[in-house]
Design goal:
Elements: H1 3-50, E1 56-60, E2 70-80, E3 83-93, E4 101-108, E5 113-120, H2 134-137, E6 149-151, E7 160-162, H3 168-188
Parallel strand pairs: 6-7
Antiparallel strand pairs: 1-2, 2-3, 3-4, 4-5
Pfam family, one: FMN_bind
Cofactor: FMN
GO molecular function: electron transfer activity; FMN binding
């Protein structure tokens, strides 16, 4: 193989890479609005599932504590009959087994968890993905908004969440995310009224 062939092959590879990159960029530009819209629809569906009876949401400014592992993106007052009946939190925990888990957490003004919903995740199918199952999520429902701890199988109750077998990291990421919302509620929103 001569120098001319090496140069020619390198030029062909460069052209293929350049065209592929340009096509990926074009596809991203064409689909980014639809992807963002789907994300918002998932978020609205999650909020509706944990607070089905709401007149409107009032977004609040988020007081960021600088923790990049678990970031609260949104805090929404839940308004019903012109009164605040609780708060919904949208947060990202970047310490799932494979990355980010986006969680919605609802807390009533009386200081109980309305529910949680997993908006998105990249956990292992059949293991970590079980954080989306009702059996796991419903352990939080109607519990006092105090920090939760993760227990092993069969230890649920008293704010102890039964971990998913073989998916401790995913379970822990959800518990830590919910605790972030609980702590924010108690420290910045006055806790139970």
């Amino acid at each position: 193989m001569g120098k001319n062939n090496i140069f020619k092959n390198a030029l062909i590879l460069f052209a293929i890479t350049l065209i592929s990159g340009a096509l990926l960029g074009l596809v991203y530009e064409l689909t980014k609005d639809a992807i963002a819209e789907q994300g918002m629809l998932r978020q609205y569906a999650a909020l509706d599932s944990i607070t089905p009876e709401v007149d409107t949401y009032n977004p609040l400014d988020v007081i960021n504590d600088g923790d990049t592992a678990i970031e609260i993106r949104e805090v929404l007052e839940i308004i019903k009959d012109n009164a605040v009946i609780g708060y919904n939190f949208i947060l990202d925990n970047n310490r799932g087994y494979y990355g980010r888990i986006t969680i919605a957490v609802g807390i009533s003004s009386e200081g109980t968890i309305n529910g949680i919903e997993i908006i998105s995740h990249t956990e292992t199918a059949g293991l970590g993905s079980r954080i989306t199952e009702a059996g796991f999520k419903n352990q939080f429902k109607d519990e006092v908004a105090e920090p939760f701890k993760l227990g092993s199988s069969g230890t649920s109750g008293d704010n102890t969440i039964d971990s998913i077998s073989s998916a401790t990291v995913s379970s822990e990421a959800v518990v830590n995310g919910v605790n972030k919302a609980v702590n924010y509620y108690n420290e910045h929103l006055g806790g139970a009224q």
